[in-house]
Amino acid sequence: MNSNNTNKWQQPWKLGVLKISHRIIKAATFAGMADNRGMAEEELFDFYEKIAAGGSALLFTGSVYVSADGQAYSHQLGVHQDECKAWLEKLAKTIHKYDAKIFVQLNHGGSGISAFQMGADSVLDISTVTVERLQSIINDYAEAARRCKDSGIDGVQIHAAHGYLLDNFLDSRENKRSDKYGGSLVNRTRLLIEVYNAVRTAVGADYPLVLKIAGCDQKGDSAEVVAIAKMLENIGIDAVEVTNGRGKAGIPITAQYIRDYMRFGNGRNYKLVKRLGGWVFAPILAKQYLRKNPFVEGYNLQYAHQFKQELQIPVINCGGLYSAEGINNAISSQSCDVVSLGRALIANPNLPNQLMKAKHLHPVCTFCTRCVIHMGDEPTACCDKSVVK
Prior knowledge:
Distance between the termini: 34 Å
Order of helices and strands: EEEHEHEHHEHHEHEHHHHEHEHHHH
Shape: globular
Strand order of the largest sheet: 3-10-9-8-7-6-5-4
Strand content: 5-15%
Number of helices: 16
Oligomer: single chain
CATH class: Alpha Beta
Number of strands: 10
Radius of gyration: 20 Å
Helix content: 25-40%
CATH superfamily: Aldolase class I
């Protein structure tokens, strides 16, 4: 490796008006540490404080719902009412003790709402939702962002990935509307742009806003999502975080992941025969999946690179990075400007400090992804006993 690039990730960078001390940050991960009003429980502050103390320069919270009917999972944080300012203010003060920055990820669950946890009637049908309701949701995003700014939160991230509301509208497979919100790419992007404009109006020109978007479509093509990011860049978004594409990013699917999915995840919605089949054949299914999609560190970089070629604003890569070499290569190769870590920090909150001091990494995430399955059922934590023993 070129010695001039060895410590590239340790260099500061600008996110809008903010100066961020280095280039390893925490990606949004669901925490599952809120009560039935969307208010943070005490353990949430400890969860984020450990990560800030561990050296992450910037932290994105997990998905926080902006509308009362936009909650996707049980125990999800909300920022849908002024009462939520209490936990926002406390979180900001907690993180700022460590010279780190904190952003809140704003989201509406849309058709990604868990029918098992929240009830089938809670899932939003994007084909039939009225324009009037969409305008109300847009206002909810703006009010949520205002609450964040008023509470000392450093910025917000607009979540437009992972099968939630804004991603529902962007995805041509799901968006079959025939009005101004469906059809062409411009129409499918309209809701996202209207959300961005409303948020920007609410918080002002200098408040940092970040977009989270999939790295590719279902066919592994980045052209359309890069074009969407470019639209947002042209109207003022401050950075883009590129997350895994729709089914093409090579996330490892282990046998235990499949079994946990049947026990704790959306697999509980399946009929009994299918759940039993998934349990019994989990080892075979996992082996086949891993043969087709072997896990490699930085599996999302091939997509982030496409964004980096087209955008002038910072590009953040999310996906499977954890080692000094992998992180340095990602930035030095100009595949991204910054790396965001999720599962790696759940397993080891001290990872950035260990990397900074060139210490032995321990513990090290195995990327089994089982922590994701438990969303809403229990507080987020590493589920691999071989890692946390």
